[in-house]
Specification:
alpha/beta; Rossmann fold; 6 helices; binds magnesium ion; HAD-like_sf; HAD family hydrolase; hydrolase; hydrolase activity
């Protein structure tokens, strides 16, 4: 199945008080690689090993190549990256008024921190798992949710 992750405040903390993050090495600091949620790289590897396609679905305009390189420094190699540019294009094509619409990209499960995205999921019939910043059970929630897709 195809699983996507939001970035801001889901995998990447927007502030220092967000959630525990993985250790960055000297090279990552020099390159200005963003911090990533502790456990994220193991989780994504785990999901990919289970046979899922795993990628990024963000409403930010980060340059894709830079994002891909930065994620690679954590050992993360996403199967796809969707940024706001394509997101807007697909939403406009479908005349859908929401912030994200995972079915447009054949995504079966989307992980996000936004209750708004959860509401959109109910309204437009797509599956989400919403993870709060202080959720210590987030890894298990996602693994369980993904198992349901196998
Ligand atoms: Mg977010």
């Amino acid at each position: 199945m195809i699983i996507s992750f939001d970035l801001d405040d889901t995998l990447i903390p927007l502030s220092d008080t967000g959630f525990p993050t993985e250790q960055r090495n000297v090279l990552q600091k020099i390159l200005g690689v963003e911090r990533i949620r502790f456990g994220a790289s193991d989780l994504i590897r785990h999901l990919k090993n289970q046979g899922h396609k795993v990628g990024i679905y963000t409403t930010s305009y980060r340059p894709k190549l830079k994002l891909r390189l930065h994620l690679l420094t954590y050992g993360i190699s996403p199967d796809f990256i969707i940024t706001e540019k394509e997101n807007r294009r697909e939403l406009a094509k479908r005349h859908i008024s929401c912030s994200k619409y995972p079915p447009a990209f054949k995504i079966n499960l989307h992980i996000d921190d936004s209750p708004g995205v959860e509401r959109e999921g109910h309204k437009f019939s797509f599956q989400t798992i919403i993870i709060k910043k202080d959720d210590t059970e987030w890894l298990n929630k996602i693994k369980t949710g993904a198992n349901g897709l196998l």
